[in-house]
Amino acid sequence: MQSNDKPVNGQPNPSFLDLLGQTPPPPDVKDWPRTKRFARLRTAWRESWEEGGFLYQRWEELFQARHAGWHEIAVWIKTAGLLAGISLIVMMVDAAGDIASAALKGLSVIPASSAGDGSGLWGTVDHPIRVFLADQAAHLAVAPGALYAFWQLTGLLGLVGGFFGNAGARIAWLLFGIGSLSMIWSAAPAGGRAAATGLAALMWALASMFALRGLTLRPIVHNHPPQFQPQFSPTLHLHAWLPAPTPAGDDFGDEPDHIHPLQR
Questions:
Q1: Helix (H, G, I), strand (E, B) or coil at 243
Q2: Which residues contact 32 (CB under 8 A, 6 or more apart)?
Q3: How open is the CA angle 120-124-130, to the nearest 5 degrees?
């Protein structure tokens, strides 16, 4: 069997199976085939862990992978890591699907929930929402308790996600508050409708201090200095042509004949 490993110090690097096939059996166990196989296996195992052996080289590659880059890691380590990661993702997706299915089934079998007499501050806000969802669920193929649980879950996720600065969670929180105020206004008693809605708005505003933490309506202005600032240095250049000085002793008698001085 040929080995696919790279040569070490100019010599071929045999694999574990090559050493197993080439190792001669000890002379004192030739008469027992089973003992001979175990003896050859132990000898091949010991030689594979010696310097330059197959398992020794694999261990060195695994030890060096902690400090090496992605392109320097051995191919078999990359393959094993990718397979392990894909297997983990598949298991997580399968588990998440089972959890979501169980949660939806649990919400669908929740009985109608219109409990609460509307007493207290929270009851003044919570009871109209329960009544509104129960009335609407009568026209839908879903239990009122499931709608109420979904409403609570939306508010909780919007509050927690908005606290950590998630934009989608903050949008969900705003829609949650607007929808809650609309339901309270629609289902609250006519005499106390305005008070119940106003109380719910105050509660929602107080909770928004946490859900909308750090949100500001001021425009953010970024003043970045330009990378190239031209420098202006205005200078005035005057070019004056001065006549050449007349040499001493020149009586201007060497002009051409056709040039005469101006006479009056």
A1: coil
A2: none
A3: 125
**Distant-in-sequence contacts of 42-51, Cβ < 8 A, 24+ apart:** 43/19, 44/16, 44/19, 44/20, 45/16, 47/19, 47/23, 48/16, 48/19
DSSP state string for 169-209:
HHHHHHHHHHHHHHHHHHHS-STTHHHHHHHHHHHHHHHHH
CA–CA distance, 135 with 151 (Å, rounded to integer): 15
C-alpha span between 48 and 60 (Å, rounded): 13
Where do we find the tokens 């590659």?
61
Instruction: Note down pLDDT in tens along the chain; length 264 residues.
Output: 444 455 545 555 556 556 555 555 555 544 456 676 778 888 888 888 888 787 888 888 888 887 777 777 888 888 888 899 999 998 988 888 788 777 666 655 555 555 555 677 888 888 999 999 999 988 888 888 888 888 998 999 999 999 998 999 999 999 999 999 999 999 998 888 999 999 999 999 999 999 888 777 666 666 655 565 556 566 666 666 766 666 665 555 555 555 555 555
pTM, 2 dp: 0.46
Give CA–CA dist 181/204, Å, rounded. Answer: 9
> Which of these, 93, 88, 90, 59, lies nearest to 76 by C-alpha position?
59
| Residue 66: count of CB within 10 angstroms of its CB | 7
Domain boundaries, the chain: 16-64, 73-109, 112-211
The closest of 82, 77, 54, 80 to 66, measured between CA atoms, is 77
